[in-house]
Specification:
- This protein is mainly alpha-helical.
- The protein is built from 17 helices and no strands.
- The chain is globular, with a radius of gyration of 22 Å.
- The N and C termini lie far apart (about 60 Å).
- It comes from Roseibium algicola.
- Keywords: Cell membrane, Membrane, Transmembrane, Transmembrane helix.
């Protein structure tokens, strides 16, 4: 009797779990968790190889180039890939026009962004790295990575998380495979040599991603959607500021301390970023639903966002505990060059929690038409990041840089939720809410 009762309870729980897994939100969350879980494994293996192959100093220089290039990449296309995501999530039939618009905008802006990015990097790191190496890595991230991102956003607009997984995992896997081959060749791998392998992996990733989109979603209709340029520019500025919040601290540490210190700091942040996979997966899975909830008004959007907060906390707290437990073992894996990386990881262990809380708030502001408020918050905190991290590094080395960095993230999270309750959503405008 007890066995039969237990069997029925187990069956009921199984049926309930199966039913939940078939809900779109849960299914997409699971898909994105798998996506970021696979990326986590690949990125950690890649990180282990690249950090050991290049050493802390060259790794710090490589991350500086990549960080600045990725930030500059938000200027390529002027936010058109995020515009595509918002518009197509609501009107799937408009995909071909917004894909064509994105490609046109990328073609128009890339020639202007490239030389400025190379010049800035040359100012930051000088003759330490050959100009040709800077240029190769910069082109890879400004153009090739951008095409991969546009392809992933296209699938995300249709809630096709599994195909987005294919694109993201393929891009990461190719870099890992090329790195593995490069380390097997005779002699030690230099940053100059790795730049060419990085470029080749980027070409293959971009070609594969574009081919999948053309096959599954259709060809672009090349047209410039002038009515949406304003909203697109807002997205560009906002995500440029987001990129600044994520990556500006690395070159600041390199410039304030040294390439070696910057490599150790970047390694710690890479581990934090990889461990944030469950939180980031949840934010991705719920992103387009904020726009749909906003169709029913600000109250609906806010209620939806508030319901997401306990889940965010539930996902982030175990990550923090995990990071605190494994921090001391990092030098055993990465080598003595990264002896101070555990300090960075411990100082930033609760960063995924703040990222999740501010991310939910950002989606509410964005979906309810308060992009300008969100943009102002991001720009102000990004600009604050440079002097604050520089001051922290000067006062307390890597620990100071990490703690001051964490303080800026606290300010962003608090400011985001303050303005959610303090400001009202504007009345809908045709040029910003409909294609």
């Amino acid at each position: 009797m007890n066995s039969s009762s237990a069997s029925r309870k187990f069956r009921a729980l199984y049926d309930k779990a199966l039913g939940l897994s078939r809900r779109p939100l849960v299914a997409n969350t699971i898909s994105y968790t798998i996506n970021f879980g696979l990326l986590l494994v690949i990125q950690l293996v890649f990180f282990l190889f690249i950090s050991r192959a290049l050493g802390a100093a060259d790794y710090g220089l490589f991350i500086t180039i990549v960080s600045v290039s990725i930030m500059a990449g938000f200027l390529v296309g002027l936010g058109s890939e995020y515009l595509l995501l918002q518009r197509v999530a609501v009107e799937p039939q408009s995909f071909d026009r917004y894909l064509g618009h994105s490609l046109i905008m990328m073609g128009l802006t890339f020639p202007f962004v490239l030389p400025g990015t190379i010049a800035l990097l040359y100012v930051l790191i000088g003759d330490t790295v050959p100009l040709s190496t800077i240029a190769i890595v910069t082109v890879s991230d400004l153009l090739l990575t951008k095409l991969v991102i546009l392809s992933a956003q296209s699938y995300m607009a249709f809630d096709r998380a599994r195909k987005q997984i294919v694109i993201n995992v393929l891009a990461a896997s190719l870099k890992l495979a090329f790195l593995f081959v490069a380390t097997l060749l005779p002699g030690s791998l230099t940053l100059q040599e790795w730049a060419w392998w990085y470029f080749a992996a980027g070409i293959l990733s971009a070609l594969a991603a574009c081919w999948l989109v053309l096959r599954d979603l259709g060809r672009p209709t090349f047209t410039l959607i002038r009515d949406d340029l304003k909203l697109s520019l807002l997205y560009c500025i906002e995500f440029f500021a987001i990129g600044g919040m994520k990556d500006l601290d690395k070159p600041v540490v390199v410039h304030t301390l040294s390439a070696d210190a910057g490599g150790q700091y970047a390694a710690g942040f890479r581990i934090i970023d990889a461990a944030s996979a469950p939180v980031r997966a949840f934010l991705y899975a719920t992103y387009t639903r904020h726009f749909r909830q906003a169709q029913d008004g600000q109250a609906s959007s806010l209620a939806f966002g508030v319901k997401l907060l306990p889940v965010t906390v539930f996902l982030a707290l175990p990550v923090a505990v995990f990071l605190l437990l494994i921090a001391g073992f990092i030098p055993l894996v990465l080598g003595e060059d990264f002896a101070e990386t555990p300090t960075v990881v411990m100082c930033l262990a609760f960063y995924p929690l703040l990222m999740g809380l501010s991310g939910v708030g950002a989606d509410i502001l964005r979906a309810t038409g308060r992009q300008r408020v969100r943009m102002a918050l991001l720009i102000s905190t990004s600009l604050l990041l440079i002097p604050v991290v520089s001051l922290g590094a000067a006062l307390g080395g890597l620990a100071g840089a990490a703690l001051f960095r964490f303080g800026v993230q606290i300010a962003l999270t608090a400011g985001t939720w303050f303005f959610i309750f303090w400001t009202k959503a504007p009345a809908p405008e045709p040029d910003e809410t409909a294609g």
